[in-house]
Write a structure and sequence with these properties.
By secondary structure, the protein is α+β, with helices and mostly antiparallel strands. Among the domains are: 192 residues, Immunoglobulin-like, CATH 2.60.40.1730; 240 residues, Neutral Protease, domain 2; 131 residues, Peptidase M1, alanyl aminopeptidase, C-terminal domain (Zincin-like fold, Alpha Horseshoe). The chain contains 26 helices and 31 strands. The strands form eight sheets. The chain has an eight-stranded mixed β-sheet with strand order 6-5-9-3-2-12-15-14, with no helix packed on it. It has a five-stranded mixed β-sheet with strand order 17-18-19-21-20, covered by helices on one side. Helix 3 crosses helix 5, helix 15 packs parallel to helix 17 and helix 24 runs parallel beside helix 26. The longest helix is centred in the middle third of the chain and has 34 residues. It binds beta-alanine and zinc ion. The site of zinc ion (ZN) has 4 residues, from helix 3.
């Protein structure tokens, strides 16, 4: 398959100014008529053909300005249609036929639960009709949908409805017009027998917007949280960014079959139903939180993505990194900032750092790809968000806002680049970001080292920071990054010290941002009465790995007193990590773990501290994170060590855990708010520790919680505790859960995931058997993620078992899936990419599977790219 390079970018030779689409919807044979009003770009030569992308389309007819085109004027091949001899402007009419019900790739127009829906980002529109399928071609869309009135009463597309009526033969139609020019990846249509809830939002300038959420009718009682989240997001974007909504209606549709989480199509978002539907008895606190965040994310795209879009797909982080930053900040403002930040850093360090250290490492702005769908990555999204966060840190809240205002003002209605974004930040603030731009172009995670020197005579503390970034594929030498290091100094009682840098007249507060631009820089602080403890990367101010030579006592001090929630949590995690990685599991007894046990005891009893932060402090580092610190990765060893330490903590803290559990028992109606969710989180963490002892009283506690739970969070936590235990009733409870929830596809996903991640010797056999269970389907992405991805990426011991059976099973599933849905297949293949991190036997097993994927006849571009790049 061909590679696409950023350096080859050429502006479009032809623009499409307006497009009229007509759909005669039929599950097997939908007819699509398009009228493209084209114009040759001024710098385009008159002989240049117009290229229209097209894939899996049946061409029925083509005409220019009302006259059918003869065959010598166009050429049809696998990539699409090339039309020659066109005038400077004109109207091209094209008719195609497609088969939505045969579209298993879920890209383009397809059916889900009998309803029609679309997914066009990144390159799905070319599977609907012939079109220049690139984001820098922006047109005004008018769309008419026709379908059977009884089977398909709801007909939706982007923008506002401008006409509707009855047709012959029991059909009807609706015409939609979107006044904003947009790239075709933002096109959407939805049609079917759907129910809806409706609400209204008045923008701050007084415009009334109708809000709709469309779902299958049996889900109508699960939409309220999504609607409330949408209204919160709309208000937040007005207050924090000054951005208002711009159409008369905003529509969200939930579908069960969806490759991604959700899609920001203009005025008509299509969502994976897992990010819309919630009822206290079916959705967990995490689901409620994710819904708020994803609803916000897609809404925020209306400005960061839709009004201002990407010039080409290499600029994907322009909209995704920025929008993830926006949704993270929205969630922080709606809930707890500290908890949010720790969660976001956890995702980044566990997944993105791993990607950055492996064969798929790529810059936030990649410079080549085979299949763009493979670049919807944690690097483009989450590291991209960290890059925007660093801009926010360097420019300050007001400077950043001025930069955003200028960016939106300059580029409204345009398709632009990450450079345009940074240029606006520079122009609005006068700050040079020349070196900062390297964050977009250089892959890899910089490593930071601190050397500290205290001089008691001079009362100075010198901090020397050194940066280094290891090579990544295709980038052997890295230039130094511009790294904001938010920091402070504290004394040995944990009190913050005023910070006066050498040469400054007066202290400038107790927290400041050092800017590390060279490979090595020394910062000297004055008036420091005794050797301080430096606190670096407050709020995790840069996506770097920081090596610090803290003593255990210093870590204990910070974990008890540091005011920044991230650094405080990080100190405790570092203590736990040191224990886990420097002792064999059998040595992780109460004596060895004494400092950790005592810190945990204090945390459990510290009722003044937010329960969610207490839960985070008491959670041991994840195996996926620990894996970053060992070579080779031995999954069972990490798992055994972590389990041993859990058991030690559980035994030593039993009365404290029981007391905390009881104290947090809640009665009354469920509420997903952050405080209530935090209490449930801590209580359920206590339960998971208690059950580690594997005794009857702990089993009874979990069984009682399972039976009495008034919400899914508590019910699922109890079930999870039981499933990971040897409780004699574990199978019966699993069965009970399934029989209770088998009609609710999203709850069944939870049931599948629990079994796939179960800490049991027979999990692989169980997962294999579940692929034949009626609850599973290889055609539904959520089922694949819930069972197969949960096993391959969430159960390292099961997947990496020494026999290689886990690899063979998942490898085979991927190859089967690739023939149906390459995007989902290649996402699953990510479990194999860092095969070089394991011992030789595992390497051989993983490599064999990657080779089989790469060399399979008819392999998709998506899977080929992942396998070939992984093999290197
Ligand atoms: N644009 C694809 C889905 C999302 O990131 O919102
Ligand atoms: Zn997005």
């Amino acid at each position: 398959p061909a590679t696409v390079y950023l350096k080859d970018y050429q502006p479009p030779a032809w623009q499409i100014e307006a497009v009229e689409l007509e759909f005669d919807l039929d599950p097997q044979a939908t007819r699509v008529r398009s009228r493209l009003q084209f114009r040759r770009a001024p710098e385009t030569g008159p002989d240049t053909p117009l290229h229209l992308d097209g894939e899996a389309l049946e061409l029925l007819g083509i005409a220019l300005d009302g006259e059918p085109l003869t065959a010598d004027r166009y050429r049809l091949d696998e990539a699409g249609l090339e039309v020659r001899g066109l005038p400077e402007t004109g109207v091209l009419e094209i008719e195609t036929r497609i088969n939505p019900s045969a579209n298993t790739e879920l890209s383009g127009l397809y059916t889900s639960s009998g309803n029609f829906c679309t997914q066009c980002e990144a390159e799905g529109f070319r599977r609907i009709t012939f079109y220049p399928d690139r984001p820098d071609v922006m047109a005004r869309f008018t769309t008419t949908l026709r379908a059977d009135k009884v089977a398909t009463p709801v007909l939706l597309s982007n923008g506002n409805p401008i006409a509707s009526g009855e047709l012959e033969d029991g059909r009807h139609y609706v015409t939609w017009q979107d006044p904003f020019p947009k790239p075709c990846y933002l096109f959407a249509l939805v049609a079917g027998d759907l129910g809806w809830i409706r609400d209204r939002f008045v923008t701050r300038s007084g415009r009334e917007v109708d809000l709709y959420i469309y779902v299958q009718k049996h889900n109508l009682d699960k939409c309220d949280h999504a609607m409330a989240s949408l209204k919160h997001a709309m208000r937040w974007d007005e207050e924090v960014y000054g951005r208002e909504y711009d159409l008369d209606r905003y529509m969200i549709v939930a579908v069960d079959d969806f490759n991604m989480g959700a899609m920001e199509n203009k005025g008509l978002n299509v969502f994976n139903s897992r990010y819309v539907l919630a009822r206290p008895d079916t959705a967990t606190d995490a689901d409620y939180q994710n819904i708020e965040s994803v609803i916000g994310h897609e809404y925020f795209h209306n400005w960061s993505g839709n009004r201002v879009t990407c010039r080409d797909w290499f600029q994907l982080s322009l909209k995704e990194g920025f929008t993830v930053f926006r949704d993270q900040e929205f969630s922080s403002d709606m809930n707890s900032r500290g908890v949010q930040r720790i969660g976001d850093v956890n995702i980044l360090r566990t997944h993105q750092f791993r990607e950055d250290a492996g064969p798929m490492a790529h810059p936030v702005k990649p410079d080549h790809y085979v299949a763009i769908d493979n670049f919807y990555t944690v690097t483009v999204y989450n590291k991209g968000a960290e890059v925007v966060r660093m801009l926010h840190t360097l420019l300050g809240t007001e400077g950043f806002r001025r930069g955003c205002d200028l960016y939106f003002e300059r580029h409204d209605g345009q398709a632009v680049t990450t450079d345009d974004f940074v240029n606006a930040m520079e122009a609005a603030t006068g700050v040079s970001l020349q070196q900062f731009r390297r964050w977009y172009d250089q892959a890899g995670t910089p490593e930071l080292e601190l050397e500290r020197h205290y001089d008691p005579q001079a009362r100075t503390c010198a901090l020397t920071l050194r940066q280094h970034c290891p090579p990544t594929p295709g980038q052997s030498d890295k230039q130094p990054f511009h790294i904001p290091v938010a920091m402070g100094l504290c004394d040995r009682e944990g009190r913050a010290l005023p910070l006066r840098l050498y040469g400054e007249a007066a202290a400038g507060g107790e927290s400041r941002v050092l800017e590390l631009c060279r490979e090595e820089e020394t910062f000297v602080f004055q008036d420091i009465p005794a050797e301080p403890v430096p606190v670096l990367l407050r709020g995790f101010s840069a996506p770097v790995k920081l090596a610090l030579d803290y003593t255990d006592a210093e870590l204990a001090l910070l974990s008890a007193h540091e005011r920044d929630p991230f650094c405080r949590w990080e100190a405790g995690q570092t203590l736990a990590r040191r224990l886990l990685l420097t002792h064999p599991p059998q040595a992780l007894d109460a004596d060895t773990a004494r400092p950790l046990i005592e810190a945990a005891r204090r945390t459990l009893a510290d009722t003044a501290l937010d329960p969610a932060l207490r839960a985070l402090a008491l959670t041991l580092p994840a195996e996926g994170y620990l894996a970053e610190f060992v070579d080779p990765i031995e999954p069972e060893q990490l798992h055994t060590a972590r389990q041993a330490l859990r058991l030690t903590l559980s035994r030593a803290l039993r009365p404290d855990l029981e007391a905390c559990y009881e104290q947090l028992t809640e009665t009354g109606a469920y509420s997903p708010d952050a405080a209530s969710a935090g209490r449930r989180r801590l209580r359920n963490l206590c339960l998971s520790y208690l059950i580690a002892c594997e005794d009857d009283s702990a089993y009874q506690l979990a069984l009682r919680q399972y039976e009495q739970a008034g919400n899914m969070t508590d019910s699922l936590a109890a079930l999870q505790a039981l499933v990971n235990s040897d409780c004699p009733q574990r199978e019966a409870v699993l069965e009970d859960f399934y029989s209770r929830w088998q009609q609710d596809t999203l709850v069944v996903d939870k049931w599948l995931s629990l079994q796939a991640t179960a800490d049991r010797a027979d999990t692989l056999e169980r997962v294999q058997a579940l692929t034949g269970h009626p609850a599973f389907s290889l055609t539904n992405p959520n089922k694949v993620y819930a069972l197969l991805r949960a096993f391959a990426q969430g159960n390292p011991v099961g997947f990496h078992q020494a026999s290689g059976a886990g690899y063979r099973f998942i490898g085979e599933q991927i190859r089967t899936l690739d023939g149906r849905n390459p995007q989902v297949a290649s996402r699953l293949a990510a479990a194999f990419t860092d095969w070089r991190r394991y011992n030789p036997t595992r390497q051989a097993g993983m490599r064999t599977e990657l080779e089989k994927m790469r060399d399979a006849g008819g392999v998709s571009r998506d899977l080929y790219e992942i396998a070939a790049r992984s093999l290197g």
